[in-house]
Amino acid sequence: MRTIKIFDTTLRDGEQAPGCSMDLKEKLELALALEKMGVDILEAGFAIASPGDFESVSEIAKVIKNAIVVSLARATMKDIDVAYDAVKHAVSPRIHTFLATSPTHMEYKLRMSEQQVLDTILQMVKYAKGKLNDVEFSCEDATRSDRNFLVKAVQAAVDAGATTINIPDTVGYTTPSEMSDLISYLLENVNGLDAVDLSVHCHNDLGLAAANTLAAINAGATQIETTMCGLGERAGNAAMEEVVMALHTRKDIFPVKTNIDTTRIYPVSRLVYSIIGMQTPLNKPIVGTNAFAHEAGIHQHGVLANASTYEIMTPESVGLTTNKMILGKHSGRHAVEDRLKDLGYTLTKEEMDELFTRFKALSDRKKTINDSDLEALVLHRIATNGAPWKLDRFTVNSGNYVACSAVVRLSHEGQLYEEVALGDGPIDAAYNAIDKIMNVPEHKLEDYTIQTISEGKDAQGEAIVKLGCCNRSYTGRGLSTDVMEASILAYINGMNKLL
Ligand code: KIV
Ligand code: ZN
């Protein structure tokens, strides 16, 4: 069986999408989770994009041991220099350089002739090879390129020493049969292409990204570029969980394997949605809330008789545990730790100490603690750990016949800062008080949501805010049984990122 290499670009193409930006801490946590899940190649970012991107690529390069760490680079010396500097400390570093090959991109974006494009590919792949051996070249907008020119472009990259050739469907334009045909055509017409990895990178504008990726695999692709939950530019990229579970479930027509531990899929998807501050969509394949739910009587009857009547894969195979255990005030550390393990979370001793303290605090406020509560505690750990500004205490005064006011006290490097403010409602008042304390650049509250984590009046509330500043959006998350506190924590979390 061939092993298909999984190239994850959640941290690059995924993070590039509006509303999906992540800070360094979140990127590191996600990179480690992806490594643990078994991705072979991890695109950590686009190092030249900003100093922050450079820092996250190089920090990820330092901690990842079992996957190749990649930085994207345009086909210029400067980009390649910076990409190399960012990944050079990785155990297995890769430079991924790209240049567009379609007539539209060459004419309107690059303003380059075909010959200039071919010369640049040859020179820049050689330049990258002078820095390290593992070099990937992508023909941006490959699926809208002239086939004969595409052959020349890929040949130039192979001749210059590229070890992986990537064929992106940049605008999600192709179809499965066309993709299959293109891959076969390239394999037949480019000398030496069978000696390097041949990859595809499919966008989902027509909802065909996973199908196109699968078609490419059957035509001979050896690497696929995907993102968790299909994050990515516009309609996103091929979702890793969809492609991997299709391969897993339909071994009869895909005689290939991957190194992905499929039982990590669900917990990693929860981490991704939690980081970008989005609720898991109801009907998302594999990881959606309803992906394994059966409501119709006839379906329930069938599943009870034999799950295979309406389930083509088991919930357990993607890491969804059906055994829901309830914990509470009297549950010990071992019970909590065991349950977390079943849910797919293994914490270090220090992380467990901290989590157990928060578990105890929660069990004082909430009678029963279920899987969703426990998972929320784990996921919110990343939001609060090591943040410079912390909530010390707050008071709000609200009513339908008084002006709402809030007093908020925050701590920062051991100092306490307190402010009082009025507002159009208690949340507005509290946020105004926080704005007074923190010396914040001009920003806008773009979105605010609150949802319950589990049932009951004592349920935990999870608040998510999106703060817009300097053409970027920052997600803040807060968790508490008190919705006012959750809202304040979310705002502080967003502000810490923004600052
Ligand atoms: O979609 C695309 O073409 C890309 C390339 C940079 C690989 O993301
Ligand atoms: Zn892309």
What does this structure look like?
- With 499 residues, this protein is an alpha/beta fold.
- The chain has 4 domains: 275 residues, TIM Barrel, CATH 3.20.20; 28 residues, no CATH class; 63 residues; 113 residues, Double Stranded RNA Binding Domain (2-Layer Sandwich).
- Helix content is 41%, strand content 22%.
- It contains 17 helices and 18 strands.
- The protein has an 8-stranded parallel β-barrel, surrounded by 8 helices.
- It is globular, with a radius of gyration of 25 Å.
- It binds 3-methyl-2-oxobutanoic acid and zinc ion.
- The site of 3-methyl-2-oxobutanoic acid has 10 residues, from strand 6 and strand 7.
- Zinc ion (ZN) binds next to loops.
What is the strand and helix layout of this fold?
Elements lengths: L1 E2 L1 E4 L1 H7 L7 H14 L3 E5 L5 H13 L4 E7 L2 H11 L5 E8 L2 H8 L3 H16 L5 E6 L6 H13 L4 E6 L6 H14 L7 E6 L6 H11 L3 E4 L13 H10 L6 E2 L7 H12 L20 H9 L21 E2 L4 H10 L6 H17 L2 E2 L1 H14 L4 E9 L6 E9 L2 E9 L2 H12 L6 E9 L8 E9 L2 E9 L2 H16 L1
Parallel strand pairs: 1-10, 2-3, 2-9, 3-4, 4-5, 5-6, 6-7, 7-8, 8-9
Antiparallel strand pairs: 11-12, 13-14, 14-15, 16-17, 17-18
Helix pairs in contact: 2-3, 2-11, 3-4, 6-7, 7-8, 8-9, 9-10, 16-17
The protein binds 3-methyl-2-oxobutanoic acid and zinc ion.
